[in-house]
Amino acid sequence: MEEKYIEELYRLLEKVEKEKDSEAMAALRWVIFNLENR
What are phi and psi of 37, to 5 degrees? Predict the structure, then answer.
């Protein structure tokens, strides 16, 4: 279940990278980092 959530966060990260939304990129990277390092 958590793996699917992380995959969706990566898809969202790709979207905001294309939009050049640096605040959203930073927030998503922080969330992904914390989820992957539990």
Answer: -105, 30
Rg over CA atoms, the chain: 10
Q: Where are the alpha helices (DSSP H) in the chain?
A: 2-19, 22-36
Q: Is the model's pTM score more than 0.70?
A: yes
The tokens for 5 are 């959530």
What pLDDT, in 10s, does the model give residues 1-13?
Answer: 789 999 999 999 9
- What's the residue count for the chain? 38
Q: Quick count: other Cβ atoms within 10 Å of Cβ 21?
A: 13
How many Å apart are CA 29 and CA 27, to the nearest integer? 6
